[in-house]
Amino acid sequence: MLVLSHGDHKIELPSDTMIIIRKATEKDYFALTNEDLKVEFDGECLYIHSPASKKHENVVFNLLTIFKTFLRQNPSLGEALGSHFALKLPNGKRPEPDIVIVPAGIVNDNDCIFEGIPKIVIEILSPSTREYDLQDKRTWYKECKIPEIWFIDLEEKSVLIDSIAPDGTYHEKKYLENIIPCTSFKNLKVTFDDIFAD
């Protein structure tokens, strides 16, 4: 739960809330970021997220387990990191995707940010961030030509994937059941049961 306080007054914000602070600076971003607070920065605004729901965290755990297991068996392909790991993209945006797959051997144990272009980013949609994820962050990711962008819709139980083609354009495909192929890792198959298991 996020709590805003001013003097003796406190307001507890409900779960699934996002606070947007406009006219923010990079100094503001670094002043607020820590391992307990999810903060994103686009060069002008700070986006502060409330803690995630149990359903959201179950899906993050399931997907992170799937990708970590696969990449442990194929360590040269990359490394899977969770939602409190920040990115600094070439366009200057600083998102914290729910899951990010980065190239192998790039991130050290004490690093808390990856500068560059990840292989895959995965966002779990929630009511407060749905529009922000599908519009703003999707644009950030496409500007940087991230090869594969996943959006997991908890309400619809669907998976929307943007995959980059050799000519640099993106192809969008929505999955509603069965097996979801991973363009970046041809041997990895993810099932709906794996993603949405309790």
Number of helices: 4
Q: Rough shape?
A: globular
Main sheet: strands, sense, barrel: 6 strands, mixed
End-to-end CA span: 23 Å
Question: How is this structure best described in words?
Answer:
By secondary structure, the protein is α+β, with helices and mostly antiparallel strands. Helix content is 23%, strand content 33%. It contains four helices and 15 strands. The strands form five sheets. A six-stranded mixed sheet has the order 6-8-10-11-12-13, sandwiched between helices. Strand 11 (148-153) and strand 12 form a beta hairpin. The longest helix has 20 residues, at 54-73. The protein starts with a strand and ends with a helix. The mean pLDDT is 90.
Which descriptors would you attach to this protein?
198 residues, alpha+beta, globular, 6-stranded mixed beta sheet, single chain, 4 helices, 15 strands
Summarize the structure in short.
With 198 residues, the protein is an alpha+beta fold. Helix content is 23%, strand content 33%.
Topology:
Blueprint: E1 2-6, E2 9-13, E3 18-21, H1 26-32, E4 39-41, E5 46-49, H2 54-73, E6 79-81, E7 86-88, E8 99-102, E9 113-115, E10 120-125, H3 130-143, E11 148-153, E12 158-164, E13 170-175, E14 179-181, E15 189-191, H4 192-196
Parallel strand pairs: 7-9, 10-11
Antiparallel strand pairs: 1-2, 3-5, 4-5, 6-8, 8-10, 11-12, 12-13, 14-15
